[in-house]
Amino acid sequence: MRTRDRLRIAIQKSGRLSGPSRQLLAGAGLRFGDDGDQLFQPGRDLPVDLLLVRDDDIPGLIAEGVADLGVVGRNVLEEQALERMDGIGPGPFRSLRELGFGRCRLSLAVPADWDWPGPSRLQGLRIATSYPRLLERWLRERGIVARAVKLSGSVEIAPRLGTADAICDLVSTGATLAANRLREVERVLSSQAVLAAPARPFGDARDGLAAMLLRRLAATSRERV
Ligand code: ATP
Ligand code: ZN
Predict the structure, then answer these.
(1) Is 138 domain-assigned?
(2) Exposure winner among 32, 87, 95, 137, fewest CB in 10 A?
(3) Closest Cα to residue 7, out of 59, 43, 33?
């Protein structure tokens, strides 16, 4: 493995996590230069650089060593960890710290007029989701056989289109579910943004830089209390 003396942190370029991610790093005293680049911003005072990407790309970039750390939802991190694991053993990622923003839940929702005797109601049905691995794990733990239909967007309209019977999607207020005449019935995962890292230490200067970042994050969150 190549040793490196700069730490590269991936954050979402634009979306729900981008503003809070930038604030988090600014609060830890990290400043980044523009460099005229849309994707890469070099650290101004410290050897810590920024990579601006789609949130879904962050776990893969960490797994490939393109990014060292990332700010990403637990939902995305765990789904992609399961995708890369296929079985038992330790996962490819570690979550170093929960960050307290981007809170949401991955929930099952069914048509509003259904009875809900419990999870067994899903037996044999099709469930639309962008998180098939998390859903399949939840179903397996409950001994339910159902089919996860993977959709990358507009999951909530699947029951009306007839492509699925129920959905498993991210919820924060529930307004989207109500607008689509769906009812939240079970929580599959509680999520928030986390600071993600590879499962194993870097073995070079990046370990010290990551430790410094964690100390600064702990100090700023204590100040906020
Ligand atoms: P990108 O273009 O980067 O792929 P996106 O559309 O996938 O963006 P956002 O909608 O910005 O991403 O959501 C990013 C993350 O924000 C989610 O993965 C989740 O962790 C968190 N989040 C918090 N609340 C919600 C919500 N109500 N719906 C969806 N995601 C939410
Ligand atoms: Zn995304």
Answers:
(1) yes
(2) 87
(3) 43
54 Cβ closer than 6 Å to some ligand 1 atom: yes
Out of 11, 16, 176, mutate this one to test ligand 1's pocket (max ligand atoms within 8 Å of CB): namely: 16
Same domain, 161 and 116: yes
Residue from 52, 55, 195 whose mutation best tests the ligand 1 pocket (most atoms within 8 A of CB): 55
Q: Within this chain, do residues 36 and 109 fall inside the same structural domain, yes or no? A: no
DSSP string, 59-78: HHHHHTTS-SEEEEEHHHHH
Nearest CA to ligand 1 atom 29: 170
The CATH number assigned to the domain holding 56 equals 3.40.190.10
Q: Which ligand is nearest to the CA of 71?
A: 1
- Helices H, strands E: what count in the chain? 7, 11
Q: Is the pLDDT of residue 87 over 70?
A: no
The range of the structural domain enclosing residue 73 comes to 7-102+192-224
Across 188-197, average pLDDT: 98
One domain, residues 32 and 65? yes
How confident is the model over 100-110, as pLDDT tens digits? 999 999 999 99
Closest C-alpha to ligand 1, atom 13: 16
